[in-house]
Design a protein that fits this description.
heterodimer; A: mainly beta; seven-stranded mixed β-sheet; four-stranded antiparallel β-sheet; B: mainly beta; six-stranded mixed β-sheet; five-stranded antiparallel β-sheet
Chain lengths: 113, 112
């Protein structure tokens, strides 16, 4: 089985712009979670989608949003980018919500200038 | 509420020495516990998981972890460190119907 893929791998944006990141889960997996990873904060949970519905949400502002499509692919959008949004954004998929291990993609490195 | 605490953000060991990475968890229900490893510029890779079966769990690359309910701990060990073990290690807990909670990570340095 192919692993979790994330596109693009690297992005450079300027403050105020918006960005969309994409994640394709492992075939058959219906749960997709997004995390923000920064050196100071570690892994911060953004949200989780299961069968096109947002099931869990972390403590991030409304500028961060996501969605999941019928084929389980997921996108994450960040509007009005701030310098502090520079981070590695990781996507993880699992076959169920919560209990199964999560399989991670390589991440998208976002740099906001 | 669920949480994970990893003691020691940086750990250094000599090649061939014992690796011990500490993880304590807090959970109101029986937890599932995980250890992940992250190499530079990569995503996280599962090392091992505890799912309420055997308390001593063996994972990949010679790592193992022991679930101790009385101590709410799930420490990761490896008898003999190898240079290739240098990486960031994350402990995580999950509960039914909820998301994963990750620790802040421990950076392991292996000294030749």
């Amino acid at each position: 089985k192919a692993g979790v893929t994330q596109t693009p791998r690297y992005l450079i944006k300027t403050r105020g712009q918006q960005v969309t990141l994409s994640c394709s889960p492992i075939s058959g997996h219906r749960s997709v979670s997004w995390y923000q990873q920064t050196p100071g904060q570690g892994l911060q949970f953004l949200f989780e989608y299961f069968s096109e519905t947002q099931r869990n949400k972390g403590n991030f502002p409304g500028r961060f949003s996501g969605r999941q499509f019928s084929n389980s692919r997921s996108e994450m959008n960040v509007s009005t980018l701030e310098l502090g949004d520079s981070a590695l954004y990781l996507c993880a998929s699992s076959s169920q919500t919560g209990r199964d291990e999560q399989f991670f993609g390589p991440g998208t490195r976002l740099t906001v200038l | 509420a669920q949480s994970v605490t990893q003691l020691g953000s940086h750990v250094s060991v000599s090649e061939g020495a014992l690796v011990l990475l500490r993880c304590n968890y807090s959970s109101s229900v029986p937890p599932y516990l995980f250890w992940y490893v992250q190499y530079p510029n990569q995503g996280l890779q599962l090392l091992l998981k505890y799912t309420s079966a055997a308390t001593l769990v063996k994972g990949i690359n010679g790592f193992e972890a022991e679930f101790k309910k009385s101590e709410t701990s799930f420490h990761l060990t490896k008898p003999s460190a190898h240079m290739s073990d240098a990486a960031e290690y994350f402990c995580a807990v999950s509960v039914p119907g909820n998301q994963f909670y990750f620790g802040t990570g421990t950076s392991l340095t292996v000294i030749p």
